[in-house]
Amino acid sequence: xxxxxxxxxxxTTYAEARSEFxxxxxxxxGRLISYxxxxxxxxxxxxxxxxxxxxxxxxxAAILIVSGTHGVEGYAGSALQQRWLRAxxxxxxxxxxxxxxxxxxxxxxSWVRRVNEDNIDLNRNFIDWDAPLPHNEDYDGLADLxxxxxxxxxxxxATTTKLMESAIEHGMExxxxxxxxxxxxxxAGLFYGGAGPAWSQDTLRAIxxxxxxxxxxxxxxxxxxxLGPAGHGELILPGGPGDPAYERAVSxxxxxxxxxxxxxxxxxxxxSGEWLSRLPxxxxxxxxxxxALEFGTVDQLEVxxxxxxxxxxxxxxxxxxxxxxxxxxxxxxAFAVDESEWVxxxxxxxxxxxxxxxx
Length: 359
Ligand SMILES: [Zn+2]
Known about the structure:
Number of helices: 12
Structural class: alpha/beta
CATH topology of the domain at 14-126 and 218-303 and 326-355: Aminopeptidase
Strand content: 15-25%
Bound molecules: zinc ion
CATH class of the domain at 14-126 and 218-303 and 326-355: Alpha Beta
């Protein structure tokens, strides 16, 4: 059991996280529906997106807690979901259900990647695919430096130096926005949004229709890691002042705590295609208040180095080779801190956020 007496407080593999999650769901008498992901697991294991519901079946409101939108970030997210289940705080209100969505991107969870089976960042994939694609012209100029074909020590040093020069010339904010706001032209590149709706998007849409549309009010906490100071948890909203969802979030968590992505208050760049903005349109009869809860891990440069190595390996290297273990270890260290103190810290913050939801 990873949560009790194990040297690491987080699961070591997707399969372990999933089996512990399912056990906790079963012990808490949850109602489980699993969706089979067609992509292969790293250890040839079955990949699923699991949805577990608790509380009154005919509740008027629900809290949805999501892990693994960005695969590898699910190690922390899954642990928080399991801790919540094991803590026995299942009753959050007489008319309120809780729905846990485990591993929105199970492929990335299994392969220790942020992206899915098609190198897609799910939170750049939920754009309107009938409209012209957003174009990130500045990314084009950095694409070959970010993910070069050659990953020798010399190539890494040369490309990193050039990227640093660009960052000094244009500023770190420009660099972060250019690299992370999303791009649709480089399928092997970073923060790639895809060429159409991903499996996870289609599946989430089906879940929304079948399991969420019935609620008149829905709060969402989407769990993320990898941005911000270690252990810090920022509440990030896609909207801004004037949006009813934003105003509700401010009334729950406080003006100082809620960071708007569009207002430039957040650690996150303003980006295109995240699912929290898209979901309300699929369930128009439901009043939705959704936030991303983003926990800091390690320094941004370390995160960027891990992402570049991971993308290089999946585009030009061999992710099944024994040498790939180092790259995965770098990804894991960038997005999951295997220390009890860090996990306790993010767990406290998560429970604080959860307790302030008013439905
Ligand atoms: Zn994330």
